[in-house]
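Case study 2.
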Amino acid sequence: MSNFSHLDMQLALGIQVSTLRKYAMALEQHGYIFNKNNQGHRLYTEKDVDAFLRLISYKKLNGMTIDRNAKAVVEWIRESIAEDAMENYFEREQDTHSLMTMTLEGFVQLQSEHIKTQSKQLENQELIVNQQKEISNNIMSANNELKKTLERMNKLIVLQQELIARTLGEIENSEEMVGILTLKKKGIR
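Prediction:
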């Protein structure tokens, strides 16, 4: 932003330095702030040129005093600043809203992906549980078959033991009979 001297302003506005000073003081009385150098001299900018041009045009249009016109210029500047501030605020709010919407959409997308992943994991866990149930059922079925086989084997062992006992009984009876027959042949009985 360029700074202009009081002489630059005098030429640009077509007014005397004393009039420039008078207008500047009137604007300052109503809250207008000029940039100043280390010695306290005003440094004029483009916005100051606009303020002075507006003050001069108000004076020509309505014929009111410099004080009232200075007050009107300062009020107009404040309103412009307020409007700019509001516009900037709404732009920032819109940007914030857009950013929040994008962030929320990204969050929703991440949540959706997370839910899909969790669903897949749940499906896999259900599949594993079903497989484990099937394995458990197969083991129980095999265990039952083994029990039945053991019961049959125990019955067979009992039957074999009974058969062996009968066979031994028959062998003993046969030996007795052979002994009796041998004795009979020998005439002992």
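Helices lie at 6-13, 17-29, 46-62, 66-186.
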